Amino acid sequence: MDNKLYLFCLVCLGILIGIHTLSFGADVRIKAIPNESTPRTIILENDSLSMKISLDWKLSVKSLKFKKKNIELIQSDTPMPLIGIENQWTLFNVGFGIRNVSIQRTKEFSTVLIHAYSNYLENPFHIFVQLSIGENPEIKAKIWLVNRFKKGFSDIYRGGKTTVVPGIPWLAFLSPDPGGVRKVLYPTEESYLLTSVSEKLMENYHPVHEWERPPEPGPVKLYFLWGNPILPTTVEFPKLNIGVFLYREKSDIPWHFDSIGKALWPSHTMRVAEGDTIHIFEGVLSIFEGDWHKSYNWFKNRIRSNFDFTYYKRPGYMKFRKDFLAYFSFIYNHMIYDPYKNRFMPKRFLQKAKREFGGIDQYWFWHSYPRAGVDPRDQFDLYEDLPGGMKGLKEFISTCHSMGTHVFLAYNPWDKIRKRKDMYKKQAEILGAVGADGLHLDTMSKADLPLRTEIDKYNPEAQFVTEGRPSIEGLQFTTESFDHPIHCRPMPVVDLLRFIIPEHQVFKIVRWDRNRRPLIYNALFNATGYAVWEDVFGEMNLPPWDEKILITRYNRIMHDFVRAVTSNNVMPLIPTLRKDLFVNGFFTDELYFYTLYQT
């Protein structure tokens, strides 16, 4: 064969192989059996998993297999309902007799839409289940219910507005063999619980019975944000080294649970009026190999891939990221203010803080409340009332800078005594005039772009620290925040914000508790910031000598291992061989740094 022709054939073969690989990749398919017109079974499958759905008298999953390890997650005698619908009127539960199925295929996903509705005129409800599968071991799901009530037809037994209880029972029916003890991570009203569940409990599980008593939660609490997004509910099977998670993007079902049972079968009683649509669930069901960290990492990558880190990449930001110990104080605290000579004593105060706490990185300057409101002056006017006025404040800040401490001014959005239209502008002018390093945003859970824009005119390196925990959007403008519980939470507790967005500095702070040791342990265990608050607007709450020793040790450890605790390579709750030992990890190329807490 001619060499050129031989070479041409090889090139063509390579192109064909490349096209085949590009076009098809993993074996992704959706099939209706016997056909799409009269389906009895739907199969979704790729190289990692397969799901078999029966379209019998009810929609149910007969098989959910993790093909990578050849593990079946559904037992044949207990199929998994594709959707749970409860209603007091029995015809509603048995009256879904008609199923329409349509299948679409693209390069990335294959999608099936199942439309189920009743052959009873009295039942006006239509259920839609859309499932998509691609190359990953996950199924994207969207499920909704529509009330298509018609007067003269549907109102024989019911009115136009009806109570229904939709639910997603998937995780409750997972039962691989051997199963053994499960680990479950699920969201509660204020946190996440990571706990173990016995196999016996899962076998006896029946969430529709009111007499069910949920198991006692495990010892570990995890916190992230107070709203969306919410971490996936995860069920881990340690014996098999696999797990399954359910991630909710949208749902009309509240997604915070007071028991494991409710977390594994999310449901909610709703009133559905004529023409209404209930968005039951939109999200992802995924199977993975490993422990619950796989679902956590999936969630973390999802958050970070859509996060704008612009304000974390600005010049000068890193020097604030190395700030760990802060001090919050009313400025007329006599440790820093001499009332007889009407002068500030920043040098004396910082030297004392060095002896008692090992030094402070940030001083949060509070000058207004509870003085605001006594007369017509507002927070900005009261700066002139300080010793030396604005000039005295600038000297105060300059002294702090010379001793290695950043100073943040307080901004009170509620102080509208003067009814100013330009509060952001006025605050920015003052910050620039005195050389402050940032703002403590009182009562606020986020900064916004207009405030950021005004501050940038005077100090683009200035940082914001909020009293409230920001939303995911607010975090993009706010580089620091309080973790500000009413009381110290019992340990162990993991702050997931610190691990998901490690660039963001969290400061542990509590004002009223007399015993702050759990909070100090919390700060060191999570390698976050810590704030000392001794003067609560005139009421003194001084830490005792043993807490000062703990704070000093915490402060030294954080600064000695600053490269590790400011690394982005971090991992919460590393698996250990002891149930009473909890470990977090912070890693660089040269150093593996671990924090341990034992109950």
Features:
599 residues, alpha+beta, Beta-galactosidase, Chain A, domain 5, TIM Barrel, 11-stranded mixed beta sheet, 8-stranded parallel beta barrel, 14 helices, 34 strands
Note poorly predicted spans: 4-25, 88-94, 207-217
Strand content: 25-35%
Give the total of domains: 2
Structural class of the helix and strand makeup?
A: alpha+beta
**Number of H/I helices:** 14
Highest-level CATH class of the largest domain = Alpha Beta
Gross CATH architecture of the largest domain: Alpha-Beta Barrel
The first-to-last residue Cα distance is 77 Å
Lateral arrangement of strands in the main beta sheet? 8-9-10-11-19-17-16-13-14-15-28
Main beta-sheet strand count, sense and barrel state: 11 strands, mixed
- Say which CATH homologous superfamily of the largest domain is assigned: Aldolase class I
Summarize the amount of helix as a percent range.
10-25%
Outline type: elongated
Rg over alpha carbons: 30 Å
Query: For the residues shown, what is the average pLDDT?
Result: 88
Q: What's the CATH topology label of the largest domain?
A: TIM Barrel
Question: What is the topology?
Answer:
Layout: H1 3-24, E1 29-33, E2 41-45, E3 49-55, E4 59-66, E5 71-72, E6 80-81, E7 84-86, H2 90-94, E8 98-105, E9 110-117, E10 125-133, E11 138-147, E12 162-167, E13 182-187, E14 192-197, H3 199-204, E15 220-223, E16 233-237, E17 242-250, H4 260-264, E18 270-272, E19 277-289, H5 293-305, H6 317-321, E20 325-330, E21 337-338, E22 343-344, H7 346-357, E23 362-366, H8 389-402, E24 406-411, H9 423-434, E25 438-441, H10 449-456, E26 463-466, E27 480-483, E28 493-495, H11 496-500, E29 505-508, H12 517-526, E30 529-536, E31 539-540, H13 545-560, H14 562-565, E32 569-571, E33 581-587, E34 592-598
Parallel strand pairs: 15-28, 20-23, 20-30, 23-24, 24-25, 25-26, 26-27, 27-29, 29-30
Antiparallel strand pairs: 1-2, 2-3, 3-4, 4-5, 4-6, 7-12, 8-9, 9-10, 10-11, 11-19, 12-18, 13-14, 13-16, 14-15, 16-17, 17-19, 21-22, 30-31, 32-33, 33-34
Helix pairs in contact: 9-10, 12-13
